[in-house]
Amino acid sequence: MTTARDQIIQTTSTLMELQGYHATGLNQIIKDSGSPKGSLYYYFPGGKEELTAEALNRAGQIVLNRIKSNLDLVEDPAESISNFIRNVALHVELSGYQGGGPITTVAMETSATSERLREACHRIYSGWIEVFAEKLLQGRFSPEQAQSLATVIIAAIEGGIILCRTGRSGDPLRQVADNLAILIRQFG
Amino acid sequence: MTTARDQIIQTTSTLMELQGYHATGLNQIIKDSGSPKGSLYYYFPGGKEELTAEALNRAGQIVLNRIKSNLDLVEDPAESISNFIRNVALHVELSGYQGGGPITTVAMETSATSERLREACHRIYSGWIEVFAEKLLQGRFSPEQAQSLATVIIAAIEGGIILCRTGRSGDPLRQVADNLAILIRQFG
DNA sequence: GTCTATACACTGATAGAC
DNA sequence: GTCTATCAGTGTATAGAC
Description:
The structure is a homodimer.
Chain A: H1 3-19, H2 26-33, H3 40-43, H4 47-73, H5 77-94, H6 103-110, H7 115-137, H8 143-167, H9 171-187
The structure holds a DNA duplex.
């Protein structure tokens, strides 16, 4: 029953999604989470880096589950994947163009300065790619094709989120959805 | 002849490419650029935000020129575009997975907190997309198709850079190159 | 487990001399 | 144009009481 710990992790994830790693201070995390101030280094002896790694892992896991359940809804790979991407577009719009998860931002900020966080992000991305690759294997794809195409799907989604946030529009992600569907059907 | 000013801008661009906006301090910029310390607010009265906007614009312009010259080398859109993306992969590798430009990182960090920087990034991305769209119009694309596909190309490249940096491999961008070439040929 | 207090470095920014 | 000095605020992290 570590609900205080959970609150800290959840708040960290939300704040870093909005403003990134370095702009998010521990004081703000404590304040926003309403958690007891003295408990941060009790729960996370590794300090900000450890706390961030946990927040990223949790956020990554939630997204992973959302991917899985979305892809299970429709059998056709092209259709289910483009549906999922459209859902991401909607999510980014409804968040006021502040959504899209904390991983991309933190990854770019820390990939050159924190081996721990870089590896955490790498593992999260790899997990997502694997799920898409498995779905593609239900179509007429070779394992290599599926892996390659799944990588491109994640790349285009992440890049699409960036374009949506900077352009304040969900359209880039919808164009990703449309064009990737075409590409997937090419094979299948 | 504002070479001190140029040095500051160049250093800002490099540092932010590596570690982002909030981790890059003005003191570090002054120190690394070897520029006179007192001149920063003389050249950039708007402070860090103005300096960053100039650095992003300069970096964006350089990339824009590189895109143009690359796409001019080969007539076939699919081939020239995938060649360019392979060049990006090589560049990221040779930089020790620290390259890829400052725009993406700063965009994610500040899109929700600085309207000025968000708009700067948006304009830069739009310029890149336009150049790719023009190239695609040389093939058998409708204007809408070209614009849509160019958007996906930029998204996949930006996302590919993220995957390359976190995974310390140039392969994701090469997979982007391969699959986008297939997608482009689908139309042309 | 949680608290307060605090150490110490650093941030962006400004003022005023030269 | 460039300098030094300095502002007020914030950063992460730690110590020690309770």
